[in-house]
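Record 1 of the preview.
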Amino acid sequence: MNSPRTTLYRDKQNAKLMGVCSGIADYTGVDALWIRLAVVIMVFATGFALPAYFIAGLLLNKKPSHLYVDKDESRYWQRVRQNPKRTAREIRARMKDVDRRLAEVEHYYVSSNPRLNAEIERLR
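->
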């Protein structure tokens, strides 16, 4: 089952018609103008896009208003949907950096406080 943040929704808050194009734009991170232009071109080129648009408008759920806290969270989830493996690598790299910095802080305090150092060694 998909997480609510990795699901395609209709975005009624930024909608022009049914919110399908703005939902696709929110999902992919592409500007809604480009999605709308692509849909218009596909309607005139194939004719299939118009029924598909209305079917998507009927089948897709409306995007919950509380889905993202802010724009940064929205961009984060767009990146997760675009490339989950890259996002996981970035998070692992950040956690390694945090771990390294914590080790430096621990080393600083332990090296300047022999009593603390002895207590930490006793706990290991």
